Amino acid sequence: MEILKKIKSYTLLVSLLYFVMGLIMLLNPGFILDAVNYIVGIFILLYGVIYIIRFFSKNDFNTLSKFGLIAGLICITFGIYILINPTLLSSIIPFAAGLLLLVDGLGKLKDSIAFKKVNYRRWWIGLIIAILFVGFGIYMLVNAFNVSKVIIQIIGAILIIDALTDIWVYFGYKKYSPNKEVKKEIENIKEANIVEVKEK
Fold it and tell me: Which of 20, 25, 100, 173 holds its CA 20 to 30 A away from the CA of 33?
Protein backbone atom coordinates (compact mmCIF):
# COMPACT_ATOMS: atom_id res chain seq x y z
CA MET A 1 0.00 0.00 0.00
CA GLU A 2 2.84 2.41 0.85
CA ILE A 3 4.44 1.80 -2.56
CA LEU A 4 1.12 2.52 -4.29
CA LYS A 5 0.73 5.75 -2.31
CA LYS A 6 4.25 6.82 -3.34
CA ILE A 7 3.50 6.01 -7.00
CA LYS A 8 0.26 8.02 -6.85
CA SER A 9 2.04 10.98 -5.20
CA TYR A 10 4.78 10.81 -7.84
CA THR A 11 2.13 10.74 -10.60
CA LEU A 12 0.44 13.82 -9.12
CA LEU A 13 3.79 15.67 -8.88
CA VAL A 14 4.68 14.84 -12.50
CA SER A 15 1.20 15.93 -13.63
CA LEU A 16 1.60 19.30 -11.86
CA LEU A 17 5.02 19.78 -13.48
CA TYR A 18 3.51 18.94 -16.88
CA PHE A 19 0.75 21.46 -16.25
CA VAL A 20 3.18 24.26 -15.31
CA MET A 21 5.47 23.43 -18.26
CA GLY A 22 2.51 23.30 -20.65
CA LEU A 23 1.21 26.63 -19.33
CA ILE A 24 4.59 28.31 -19.90
CA MET A 25 4.83 26.82 -23.40
CA LEU A 26 1.29 27.96 -24.21
CA LEU A 27 1.60 31.51 -22.85
CA ASN A 28 5.26 32.23 -23.60
CA PRO A 29 6.55 30.00 -26.43
CA GLY A 30 9.30 32.48 -27.31
CA PHE A 31 10.88 31.99 -23.88
CA ILE A 32 11.00 28.20 -24.39
CA LEU A 33 12.53 28.54 -27.86
CA ASP A 34 15.16 30.99 -26.61
CA ALA A 35 15.98 28.74 -23.64
CA VAL A 36 16.44 25.68 -25.90
CA ASN A 37 18.60 27.67 -28.33
CA TYR A 38 20.78 29.05 -25.52
CA ILE A 39 21.25 25.58 -24.00
CA VAL A 40 22.24 24.11 -27.38
CA GLY A 41 24.54 27.08 -28.07
CA ILE A 42 26.30 26.72 -24.71
CA PHE A 43 26.65 22.96 -25.19
CA ILE A 44 28.26 23.39 -28.65
CA LEU A 45 30.51 26.16 -27.30
CA LEU A 46 31.71 23.99 -24.39
CA TYR A 47 32.24 21.08 -26.77
CA GLY A 48 34.53 23.29 -28.88
CA VAL A 49 36.43 24.49 -25.78
CA ILE A 50 37.05 20.85 -24.78
CA TYR A 51 38.49 20.17 -28.25
CA ILE A 52 40.82 23.17 -27.91
CA ILE A 53 41.95 22.13 -24.41
CA ARG A 54 42.64 18.59 -25.61
CA PHE A 55 44.66 19.95 -28.52
CA PHE A 56 46.96 22.13 -26.35
CA SER A 57 47.28 19.46 -23.63
CA LYS A 58 48.99 17.09 -26.13
CA ASN A 59 52.64 17.42 -27.11
CA ASP A 60 52.19 15.61 -30.42
CA PHE A 61 50.58 18.03 -32.90
CA ASN A 62 49.82 15.53 -35.66
CA THR A 63 47.23 15.76 -38.43
CA LEU A 64 44.51 14.19 -36.28
CA SER A 65 45.04 16.64 -33.42
CA LYS A 66 45.01 19.55 -35.90
CA PHE A 67 41.66 18.28 -37.15
CA GLY A 68 40.48 18.40 -33.53
CA LEU A 69 41.66 22.01 -33.29
CA ILE A 70 39.73 22.95 -36.44
CA ALA A 71 36.62 21.13 -35.18
CA GLY A 72 36.94 22.95 -31.85
CA LEU A 73 37.20 26.36 -33.51
CA ILE A 74 34.17 25.59 -35.71
CA CYS A 75 32.12 24.49 -32.65
CA ILE A 76 33.10 27.63 -30.71
CA THR A 77 32.22 29.88 -33.67
CA PHE A 78 28.89 28.14 -34.26
CA GLY A 79 28.08 28.12 -30.53
CA ILE A 80 28.74 31.88 -30.23
CA TYR A 81 26.68 32.51 -33.37
CA ILE A 82 23.71 30.60 -31.89
CA LEU A 83 24.00 32.56 -28.63
CA ILE A 84 24.01 35.84 -30.55
CA ASN A 85 21.16 34.67 -32.84
CA PRO A 86 18.88 32.56 -30.59
CA THR A 87 16.16 32.30 -33.25
CA LEU A 88 18.43 30.42 -35.67
CA LEU A 89 17.84 26.83 -34.53
CA SER A 90 14.11 27.30 -33.93
CA SER A 91 13.72 28.54 -37.50
CA ILE A 92 15.68 25.77 -39.25
CA ILE A 93 13.08 22.96 -38.98
CA PRO A 94 10.04 25.05 -40.08
CA PHE A 95 12.17 26.59 -42.86
CA ALA A 96 13.19 23.12 -44.13
CA ALA A 97 9.57 21.89 -43.87
CA GLY A 98 8.38 24.98 -45.75
CA LEU A 99 10.93 24.38 -48.49
CA LEU A 100 9.79 20.75 -48.86
CA LEU A 101 6.13 21.84 -49.04
CA LEU A 102 6.96 24.44 -51.67
CA VAL A 103 8.89 21.99 -53.86
CA ASP A 104 6.18 19.32 -53.43
CA GLY A 105 3.46 21.87 -54.21
CA LEU A 106 5.19 22.97 -57.42
CA GLY A 107 5.47 19.31 -58.44
CA LYS A 108 1.74 18.82 -57.82
CA LEU A 109 1.01 21.99 -59.79
CA LYS A 110 2.92 20.57 -62.73
CA ASP A 111 0.98 17.28 -62.46
CA SER A 112 -2.40 19.04 -62.33
CA ILE A 113 -1.56 21.04 -65.50
CA ALA A 114 -0.57 17.79 -67.20
CA PHE A 115 -3.91 16.23 -66.16
CA LYS A 116 -5.79 19.23 -67.60
CA LYS A 117 -4.04 18.81 -70.94
CA VAL A 118 -5.26 15.19 -71.20
CA ASN A 119 -8.81 16.34 -70.27
CA TYR A 120 -8.89 14.61 -66.86
CA ARG A 121 -12.16 15.79 -65.25
CA ARG A 122 -10.87 16.17 -61.68
CA TRP A 123 -7.61 17.91 -62.51
CA TRP A 124 -8.71 20.91 -60.43
CA ILE A 125 -8.50 18.88 -57.18
CA GLY A 126 -4.75 18.50 -57.70
CA LEU A 127 -4.56 22.22 -58.54
CA ILE A 128 -6.24 23.22 -55.24
CA ILE A 129 -3.94 20.92 -53.22
CA ALA A 130 -0.92 22.29 -55.11
CA ILE A 131 -1.91 25.90 -54.36
CA LEU A 132 -2.41 25.04 -50.66
CA PHE A 133 0.98 23.34 -50.48
CA VAL A 134 2.71 26.25 -52.20
CA GLY A 135 0.90 28.77 -49.98
CA PHE A 136 1.77 26.96 -46.74
CA GLY A 137 5.33 26.43 -47.94
CA ILE A 138 5.85 30.13 -48.64
CA TYR A 139 4.23 31.07 -45.31
CA MET A 140 6.56 28.71 -43.39
CA LEU A 141 9.60 30.06 -45.24
CA VAL A 142 8.70 33.66 -44.45
CA ASN A 143 7.45 33.04 -40.88
CA ALA A 144 9.64 30.15 -39.74
CA PHE A 145 10.09 31.47 -36.18
CA ASN A 146 6.35 32.14 -35.69
CA VAL A 147 5.56 28.63 -36.92
CA SER A 148 7.95 27.30 -34.27
CA LYS A 149 6.02 29.27 -31.65
CA VAL A 150 2.73 27.72 -32.80
CA ILE A 151 4.25 24.22 -32.60
CA ILE A 152 5.47 24.94 -29.04
CA GLN A 153 2.00 26.20 -28.10
CA ILE A 154 0.37 23.04 -29.48
CA ILE A 155 2.79 20.89 -27.45
CA GLY A 156 2.01 23.04 -24.40
CA ALA A 157 -1.73 22.55 -24.85
CA ILE A 158 -1.24 18.77 -25.16
CA LEU A 159 0.83 18.74 -21.93
CA ILE A 160 -1.90 20.69 -20.10
CA ILE A 161 -4.63 18.31 -21.27
CA ASP A 162 -2.49 15.31 -20.32
CA ALA A 163 -1.76 16.78 -16.87
CA LEU A 164 -5.41 17.66 -16.17
CA THR A 165 -6.49 14.14 -17.20
CA ASP A 166 -3.93 12.54 -14.86
CA ILE A 167 -4.93 14.84 -11.98
CA TRP A 168 -8.62 14.01 -12.56
CA VAL A 169 -7.83 10.28 -12.53
CA TYR A 170 -5.70 10.68 -9.37
CA PHE A 171 -8.46 12.43 -7.38
CA GLY A 172 -11.06 10.07 -8.83
CA TYR A 173 -9.17 7.06 -7.46
CA LYS A 174 -8.64 8.84 -4.16
CA LYS A 175 -12.32 9.70 -3.81
CA TYR A 176 -13.79 6.36 -4.80
CA SER A 177 -11.16 3.96 -3.45
CA PRO A 178 -12.69 2.04 -0.53
CA ASN A 179 -11.53 2.94 2.98
CA LYS A 180 -10.23 0.41 5.53
CA GLU A 181 -13.65 -0.31 7.05
CA VAL A 182 -15.24 -1.00 3.67
CA LYS A 183 -12.30 -3.22 2.66
CA LYS A 184 -12.60 -5.18 5.92
CA GLU A 185 -16.34 -5.61 5.39
CA ILE A 186 -15.76 -6.88 1.83
CA GLU A 187 -13.17 -9.38 3.12
CA ASN A 188 -15.60 -10.60 5.80
CA ILE A 189 -18.34 -11.12 3.21
CA LYS A 190 -15.91 -13.08 1.01
CA GLU A 191 -14.85 -15.27 3.95
CA ALA A 192 -18.49 -15.87 4.90
CA ASN A 193 -19.31 -16.89 1.32
CA ILE A 194 -16.34 -19.30 1.29
CA VAL A 195 -17.46 -20.91 4.58
CA GLU A 196 -21.04 -21.19 3.29
CA VAL A 197 -19.87 -22.92 0.12
CA LYS A 198 -17.73 -25.39 2.13
CA GLU A 199 -20.67 -26.27 4.38
CA LYS A 200 -22.82 -27.07 1.36
Answer: 100
